[in-house]
Design a protein that fits this description.
- With about 190 residues, the protein is an alpha/beta fold.
- It has 2 domains: about 1-50, no CATH class; about 55-190, Response regulator (Rossmann fold), CATH 3.40.50.
- Helix content is about 35%, strand content about 15%.
- The protein has helices at about 1-10, 65-75, 90-100, 115-125, 140-150, 160-175; strands at about 60-65, 85-90, 105-110, 135, 155-160, 180, 185-190.
- The chain has a 7-stranded mixed β-sheet, with helices on both faces.
- Strand 6 and strand 7 form a beta hairpin.
- Helix 3 (about 90-100) runs parallel beside helix 4 (about 115-125).
- The chain is globular, with a radius of gyration of 17 Å.
- Residues about 1-15 and about 20-50 have low confidence and may be disordered.
Length: about 190
């Protein structure tokens, strides 16, 4: 019901009665880092609208050695009904599943057993260069952002920022073929 209401709000004038507090009209939205996208891309009440942008669900591979982190990412991304999620527990499994599933995005931890994040990214750049990589780490710093860019990643997100910006980063990387680097204030669609 909320998604249908949000769709109507985007297509017609708002009704004269007050909308539910969880739904904002496009006119009331604070400025977005991506002004060409309506706020509904990040609003849980409008999550079904993203289905109209693509002909199939987004496929995202989450590669992290901690099950609780993979579960948290899965929970955050499950707010969008149009994302299929897959998991890998180590670097070698991440490469295998990427080649097998051909996801639209790989979310990659820096520190994993068997094969670390940098080595995985380098291998994926060689084997599947069109699939964007979003590094997801507890570590921060300008040098780290430079390092992930050097191995060909299209994005970096600190794990503490996941609940606020992970879904946004996925949309920027997949739907707009842009880049998303949270530590360097560099977020732009292509």
């Amino acid at each position: 019901m909320a998604a249908a209401y949000a769709t109507a709000r985007l297509e017609t004038k708002p009704p004269s009665n007050n909308p539910p507090p969880s739904v904002m009209s496009v006119r009331e939205v604070p400025s977005s880092p991506l002004p060409d996208l309506p706020y509904c891309y990040w609003n849980a009440a409008c999550k079904r609208l993203v289905k109209h942008v693509r002909d199939r669900p987004m496929r995202v591979l989450i590669a992290d050695d901690h099950e609780v982190i993979r579960g948290g990412v899965r929970l955050i991304l499950s707010h969008d009904l149009d994302i299929e999620l897959f998991e890998a527990a180590n670097g070698e499994e991440a490469i295998t599943k990427t080649l097998e599933l051909s996801p639209d995005l790989v979310i990659l931890d820096l520190s994993m057993p068997v094969m670390g994040g940098y080595a995985v990214a380098q291998e994926l750049r060689r084997l599947a260069p069109r699939i964007p990589i979003l590094f997801f780490s507890i570590h921060k710093g300008t040098q780290l952002v430079k390092d992930v860019k050097a191995v060909g990643a299209k994005g970096f997100l600190h794990k503490s920022e996941a609940s606020a910006t992970l879904l946004q980063a996925v949309y920027v990387l997949v739907l707009h073929k842009g880049t998303f680097f949270s530590d360097s204030d560099e977020t732009r669609p292509s």
